[in-house]
C-alpha cells in the first residue's frame, strides 16, 4: 500500500496542491492517535486517517481554508462543553458536538507547488535569470510547453521572441517579460498585433528600474518584478480552469460545517436539501 509520505511525494512531483495533515496530540476517547496522517486535495478528497467521520469533516473544511490562504494551521477538535483553548494566528478551535468525547490536535501544512518559470533564450541574461530563479526555488521549466507556467522570460535578444510571446499568451501565461529596450519592445509587440488584454500581460522593458547593467543585475531586476507580481499582485499560474471549491453546508442537527459530496449524508425535506456530518445526525433529523 502507498504510504501517506509516498502519496505526498507523488502529489508534489505532479505539482498538485494539497494539505498534509498530521495528528500531533490525541486525548481519549478518540480513534485517532498521534502520528496518524492524511493528505487533503483541493477537491476536498482525503487519503489517510486523522479520526472518525466527525473529526474528518472538521479537518477537511479547515484544510481547504489553509490551502486557500497558504498558511499552516494548528486545528484543535474538541467535544461540546470542553475547556476553552485560545485561538490566535495559526490556530483554530472547532467544537464538535458529535465527536466521540475526546480531543485531537491536527497540524495542517499546505503544500503548494513552486511557481514555474520558463526562460527563452540562450543568452547571458537568460542564463543569469535561470540561475537566480533556481536559487529562489522557482521550478525552472526546460521543456517547450508553456502550460502551467507562472511567468515566462523572453531573453532571446532578437531571436525567437515573437514565437515565444505568442505561445506563452496562447497557453494562458499572465506574465511575460520581454528583455528589450522600450523602443524595440514596442516594435515587437506592434508586429504581433496583440489585443489590449494580451499586451497588458507582456512586460517590456523587463524588470524593475534598479539601474541594472550586468546580466546578473538585469536578472535581479527581472526576478524582483516576477516576485512582486506573485507576492503583491497575486499572479497565478496558467492552469486552465480554476479549482472548484467544494460546496459546504451546515448540519442542522449539530451545527458542523460539512463538505457536500456524493457520500455526504443527505435528506430532502419539504423541497429543501440538508446535508449531515454523519448518519446519526441524518437519522436524528428525519425522525423528528
Overview of the molecule:
By secondary structure, the protein is of the alpha/beta class. It has 3 domains: 4-113, no CATH class; 116-231, Rossmann fold (3-Layer(aba) Sandwich), CATH 3.40.50.720; 247-288, no CATH class. 32% of the residues lie in helices and 25% in strands. The strands form 4 sheets. A 6-stranded mixed β-sheet has the order 3-2-1-6-4-5, with helices on both faces. Helix 4 links the parallel strand 9 (151-154) and strand 10 (176-178). Helix 3 packs across helix 7 (215-231). It is elongated. The mean pLDDT is 88.
What attributes does this structure have?
single chain; 288 residues; alpha/beta; Rossmann fold; 6-stranded mixed β-sheet; 5-stranded parallel β-sheet; 15 strands; 25% strand
SSE map:
Blueprint: H1 4-13, E1 18-27, E2 37-41, E3 46-48, H2 53-69, E4 73-79, E5 91-96, E6 103-111, E7 116-120, H3 124-135, E8 139-141, E9 151-154, H4 161-170, E10 176-178, H5 182-192, H6 196-200, E11 202-203, H7 215-231, E12 248-250, E13 257-259, E14 266-269, E15 272-275, H8 279-287
Parallel strand pairs: 4-5, 7-8, 7-9, 9-10, 10-11
Antiparallel strand pairs: 1-2, 1-6, 2-3, 4-6, 12-13, 14-15
Helix pairs in contact: 3-7
